[in-house]
Amino acid sequence: MKKILVIHGPNLNLLGKREPGVYGKTTLPQINSVLKALAAKLKVKLTIKQSNVEGEIVDFIQGAENKFDGILINPAAYTHTSVAIRDAIAVLDIKVVEVHLSNIYSREEFRHKSLISPVASGTILGFGAKSYTLGLAALLDLISAK
Ligand code: DQA
To answer: 15 CB contacts (<8 Å, ≥6 apart)?
Structure first.
């Protein structure tokens, strides 16, 4: 059975009440249960983590090598700032798919640059909560094509 690590970055624990006009009304527990249902259907084991702390996210990524077949990550605001998360991903030998609920390229200019995209296998963005299920399907596709 394939094993996938899902990482949600800072402030995503507030989804549902956080800028619903941008991120929608779906809560993080709702996103996680949809992901778990899809994983069960596809016979994949999911481990889901959320952190508001950059170093903790680096630790999750470092710990994934040899334990998981791939990582689905929404680095949230750290997308635009974190060399540490980017470097942790760059070391990995497993597939990483970056997801965003919003289309970061249609928003403020400071969101237009992702430090993560160059080291991710692929990026899915702009589909709201659906970015996660599309991202999981894309990640599994990449893993099985390997
Ligand atoms: C986000 C986009 C980021 O710019 C923002 O800081 C987030 C969420 C998204 O999913 O659209 O926290 O990653």
So the answer is: 23, 24, 26, 27, 28, 31, 101
Sites in the chain below the pLDDT cut of 70: 146
Residues facing 44 on adjacent strands = 2
Does ligand 1 come within 6 angstroms of the Cβ of 77? yes
Taking the C-alpha atoms of residue 40 and residue 56, their distance in angstroms, rounded to an integer, is 27
Question: Distance between CA 67 and CA 65 in Å, rounded?
Answer: 5
Q: Is the CB of 8 under 6 A from ligand 1?
A: no
Question: What pTM value is reported for the model?
Answer: 0.97
- In the CATH hierarchy, which fold is given to the domain comprising 2-145? Rossmann fold (3.40.50)
